[in-house]
Design goal:
Radius of gyration: 35 Å
Order of helices and strands: HHHHHHHHHHHHHHHHHHEEEEEEEEHEEE
Shape: elongated
Distance between the termini: 41 Å
CATH superfamily of the largest domain: Sodium/glucose cotransporter
Number of strands: 11
CATH class of the largest domain: Mainly Alpha
Helix content: 55-70%
Strand order of the largest sheet: 7-3-11-1-8
Number of helices: 19
CATH topology of the largest domain: Sodium/glucose cotransporter
Length: 695
């Protein structure tokens, strides 16, 4: 184990921890200071903390893994999400901050109702705790993965260390400790990631080498849209916009906005946020793509791309810095989520303890333990340790629950308890059902989640309160305006979808995608290349040359092998009085050998004739990967295609050598004669067609 790496890691971790613990000297022992830092945080600190909290382990681990898998099409999650976040900061955060300051609210769940602790607020709080615990578990898993890769420590050990640090951060200074630490980490992680990006690009030959490396692995990696989206590309992209808008439904990020005092502070924080996050996002995309070029093994975990790339290209000191940044970022984000859960519990589920500082800290400890249990349990569930999967579920789940309610309340519509709870349950049901059906592979859960919530809102409004506008202080457009609006939206969408359907990438042509379980149905056929009958003398080597130019449309065939059938009889003769003795006239078998050669592929096989009739044997040469047929596991479609689609490997010249070695029988008074054998040959090209389906 590299002592410099460990020393660097401990140095930076100590620095980060020291910054967080320093908040003890300025904190006040009140729940308001513990949960929202007294609403007096500097905009720059709040913004840098929001960057770190919003990205954290997801960006270092999960996003890198998704970029590794998607290639250039990752741009849409960046662009779509960024636009959604801008809308959230400009629009919804203003409403959230104003409402929070006016009502003294410390949790996002309190905003779903005019009354803190109402039934709908309690439900929102419980859902917040559920999803935020999953989110915090993803952070702990990220830290565990980072320590496992870089130091070789067990992931469970890393998770437990994270639990201790999370509790320490929370107890030391509450949200202030988290924000201070986040701000320091944001500065360090952009420096470290910039260095890693620069070194990695030098390693792979710049942007030209990056593009060539991706194209060599899979053409889909260099396509700006992914292949085979069952629900189209428009919904796929729109889901990312809603995912960005979902930042307004993330309690741990919203808490940062609640720490700001004025609307001017919010505007300043917004500028800091995007000035910091935008270059960081670009750097992470480049690192994710570079890791795909460097690490090509099918067994490689894409989410380990960044730490593995750091170890591959940087010195131990800088690896320690990267590791400390990842680990500290995940821990402070997890502690923010734990604190957000604490606020939801104390303000909405049990408001009677909302001012009890001691009991509030006990709630923090319980929530942290719950998140840790989820993280450890996920290690033993297939796919449960995927940081990207856990984060997407949590982000889109929370966004679907809160954002639709925040939007209609911003518009001035005041839903009652039943209405609000119905929207939340519909959103939750939409997200969970979508994932259980496996449709999240086509479109992320933000669309069904938010869609279900808004549909429920309009239905509930129509059934219970149709005398006012469902848009609150805004009137619904008339039918003509709605029709024009629909046309304006559907016209370009139709063009985009038609273009994608006819000209979009095809995974069956260029492969790609993550490893999985597949059912490969292989269909073999044959095309005759040559046939004939030749007499081959004893000891002679007869060569027959062939070429695929003699086969019609050979260029269109996937030729994976060649099969030769050699057929022969026995023409040995006998003469003499002794041949009348039993067995004296029986011939001895001759050996006929066929050798088939095509480029570097060659095989020989021998057979023997008999006096009882024709005999035959096969000579078969193949150059495809037979293990890629039938039930195949742990490989990608690209791997299967590479193993079964041999391209032009079967085209060109072929050569068949036939030799005969005669063995004559006979005895006293019975002489045998055998000069060779007549050999009939049939040469067939073996062709393969196949289909790939998910098992």
């Amino acid at each position: 184990m590299d002592l410099i790496l460990i020393g660097s890691f401990l140095l930076f971790m100590t620095a980060f921890a020291g910054i967080g613990l320093a908040s003890m000297w300025v904190k006040e022992d009140t729940t308001d200071d513990y949960l929202v830092a007294g609403r007096g945080m500097h905009p720059a600190l709040a913004a840098l903390s929001a960057v770190s909290t919003w990205n954290s382990g997801y960006m270092f681990i999960g996003f890198i893994g998704f970029t590794f898998t998607m290639g250039y099409s990752i741009m849409w999650i960046g662009v779509g999400s960024m636009i959604g976040q801008i809308v959230a900061w400009v629009w919804l955060y203003k409403f959230i901050q104003q409402s929070a300051n006016e009502r003294g609210i410390r949790s996002l769940s309190s905003l779903v109702s005019e009354v803190t602790g109402s039934p709908e607020a309690k439900l929102a709080a419980m859902l917040s705790i559920l999803f935020l615990s999953v989110y915090a578990a993803a952070q702990l898993t990220s830290g565990g993965k980072a320590l496992y890769v870089m130091l070789g420590w067990s992931e469970v050990v890393g998770i437990l260390i994270g639990f201790v640090l999370v509790v320490a951060y929370c107890y030391a200074g509450g949200i202030r400790a988290s924000i201070w630490t986040d701000a320091a980490q944001s500065s360090v992680m952009i420096v470290g990631s910039s260095l890693l990006c620069w070194v990695a690009m030098q390693e792979i030959g710049g942007f030209g080498g990056l593009h060539d490396g991706l194209a060599a692995q899979d053409a889909n990696l260099t396509s700006i849209v992914p292949a085979d989206l069952g629900l189209g590309v428009s919904l796929w992209v729109f889901a990312f916009f809603l995912g960005g808008l979902s930042v307004a439904g993330q309690p741990q990020v919203v808490t940062r906005v609640m720490t700001l005092g004025t609307d001017e502070d919010r505007k300043t924080a917004m500028l800091w946020f995007f000035a910091w996050q935008t270059p960081f996002l670009v750097i992470m995309v480049i690192i994710g793509l570079a890791s795909r070029v460097v690490f090509t093994g099918t067994e490689f975990d894409p989410e380990l791309g960044l730490p593995m790339l750091a170890m591959e290209t940087l010195g131990p000191f800088w690896v320690g810095l990267i590791l400390a940044s990842i680990f500290a970022a995940t821990m402070s984000t997890a502690d923010s989520q734990v604190l957000a859960c604490t606020a939801a519990f104390t303000d909405d589920i049990m408001p009677e303890i909302s001012q009890d500082h001691k009991k509030t800290k006990i709630v923090t400890l319980v929530v942290a333990a719950f998140a840790t249990a989820i993280s450890i349990f996920g290690l033993y569930v297939p796919g449960g340790d995927s940081v990207f999967t856990l984060v997407v579920l949590a982000v889109y789940g929370l966004g679907s629950i809160f954002v639709p309610i925040l939007i209609i309340r911003w518009a001035g519509y005041e839903p009652d308890t039943t209405h609000t709870m119905a929207m939340m349950v519909a959103a939750l049901t939409g997200v969970i059902a979508w994932r259980l059906l496996g449709l999240n592979d086509e479109v992320f859960e933000s669309i069904p989640g938010m869609g279900a919530a808004f549909i429920t809102h309009f239905v509930m409004h129509q059934l219970r309160n149709s005398d006012v506008s469902p848009l609150g202080r805004y009137e619904l457009p008339d039918t003509r305006t709605l029709a024009v609006g629909a046309l304006v939206i559907l016209a370009p969408v139709t063009v985009v979808e038609a273009t994608y359907a006819f000209a979009g990438p095809d995974s069956m042509e260029s492969g790609g995608g993550p490893p999985g379980d597949w059912l490969v149905d292989a269909s073999f056929s044959s095309e005759q290349l040559a046939d004939g009958i030749e007499y081959v003398n004893d000891g002679e080597n007869l060569t027959i040359d062939m070429h695929t130019d003699s086969v019609d449309d050979a260029d269109d065939l996937n030729i994976v092998g060649v099969r030769v059938t050699l057929t022969y009889s026995e023409d040995e003769t006998s003469a003499g009085l002794g041949c009348n003795l039993p067995g004296a006239s029986n011939p001895d078998p001759d050996t006929i050998t066929g050798t088939m050669v095509h480029n570097e592929h060659n095989t020989s096989a021998s057979g023997q004739n008999s006096g009882s009739g024709p005999s035959s044997h096969l000579v078969v040469v193949e150059w495809y990967n037979a293990s890629m047929t039938g039930n195949v596991s742990g490989v990608s479609k690209s791997d299967i295609n590479n193993g079964l689609d041999v391209g032009d490997a079967g085209l060109g010249a072929y050569s068949l050598d036939i030799t005969v070695v005669v063995d004559t029988g006979g005895g006293v008074g019975c002489s045998h004669t055998d000069d060779g054998e007549e050999v009939e040959y049939l040469v067939e090209l073996i062709t393969l067609d196949y289909t790939i389906e998910a098992a």
